[in-house]
Amino acid sequence: MSSARGRFRRAPDRDGPGWLRGAPPPLWARVLPTALLAGVCAAELISPEPLDIGFLLGAIPPLAVLAHGPAATAVLGALVVVVLSVPVFNLNAPGTTDLLTVCFVSVLSVLLSFVRSRRDAQLVTERSVAEAAQRAVVPPLPERVGPVRCAGLYRAAQRGTLVGGDFFDVRAGPYGVRAVMGDVQGHGLSAVATVASLLGAFREAVLDQPDPEAVAARLDRRMAVDSADEPHAELFATAVLLDFSTDARQVRIVACGQSGPLLLRNGRAVELDVEPCTPLGLGLAGVAPPRVVSVPLRAGDRLFLASDGVTEARDADGAFYPLAERLPDLAHEDPAALAERVWADLVRYSPDVRDDVTMLVLAPRPRGGP
C-alpha cells in the first residue's frame, strides 16, 4: 500500500515474498547458466591440458528452466551442443551418444520451461484476482473519516493472504462516525466469509441504527442467521464498536467479548473501564443488552485498538507483550507511524507471531473542545 499518512497498511511479511512463493527469480538464478557455460569455455581455452569438465555443460539446460523461458532455454541448450562439438575447446571429443543425451536433455528442458512459464502466468493471474477480492472485503481506510483520523495495520496469520479472521472498518453515517474492530472464530481463508458478512452488516447498520448497541445487535443477528442452517457451527465473533459524536468530543464504546481500546492522553496509555458483554453470534439481544461506556475526548487524544494477536503474543520466556506499558514510548503524532512502530516492537519482542495481528488507531479532533 501507499505510505501516505494515516492510511491502512498491511504489515510486511518478515520473510519477504520469496522466490519459491511467486517473486521473480533472483539475479544469480538468471546469470548462473550463462556464467557456467562461459566458465567452462574459458577454463578449457586457458588450460594447456584438456580438462575433463564437459559434464558440467549437461547441467546448463536444467538450470535455465528455473529462471528462463523456452526461447532462452533453447538457445542455451544449442550453445552447449556447439561447445561440445567444436574441437577448439578440447572437451575430449564426446561421442554421438553423449551429444544425443545432451540434445535430449535440452529438448526436455525447453518443454519443462514452457510448462513452468504457462503455470507462472496462470499463478500471477489467479493471485491478482484473489488480492482484488480480498481487498474488496477489507478495503483501505481513508486518511480521515469526518473529524476522525484513521490508521490501520493488518497482518494475516496465513501466509500469502491479505485477509484472515480479524476485521476493522471506520464509516461515517447520519448518526456520526463509527468504527469496529473484531475477530471471528477461526483463522485464515476459512474465516473470510464471516468477516465479509459482518462488515456488510456493519456498513448497513451505520446508516440506519441510532446507537452503538443497536449496531451490535445487528451484527449479532447477522451471525445468528449465518449459522442457523448449521446447528453445530458454534459461529461467534468478538468485537469492539465505537460511536463518535458529531463534534468528536465524546465516544461511546460497546465491547462484545473483547476488551476496549487504550486511550493515549498526555503521554500515558489508559485502559478504559469497558466491561465486555457476550460475543456476537451467541444471542446478544436475548441474554442481556450490551453496556455502553461514554468517554469524553480532548484534543490530542488517540484511541488504540489491538487484536489478541498483539496482546497475547509471548516472548521466549512465555511473557505476554506489555502493550499498555510500551505504547506511550512508541507514540508519535502520526497515527500510521504509531501502528507501524508497535508492529516493529512486537516482532522484536515475539519473532514467532502466529496469530492474525490487527491494529486500529483513531485520532479524533474535537470541535470547540479544550
From TrEMBL:
SUPFAM superfamilies attached to this UniProt entry: PP2C-like
Transmembrane spans: 53-86, 98-115
Keywords, in A-Z order: Hydrolase, Membrane, Transmembrane, Transmembrane helix
Domain PPM-type phosphatase span(s) in chain numbering: 148-364
Gene Ontology terms for molecular function: protein serine/threonine phosphatase activity
One Pfam family it belongs to: SpoIIE
Source superkingdom: Bacteria
UniProt signal peptide: none
EC number(s) given by UniProt: 3.1.3.16
Protein name as catalogued: PP2C family protein-serine/threonine phosphatase
Organism listed in the record: Streptomyces olindensis
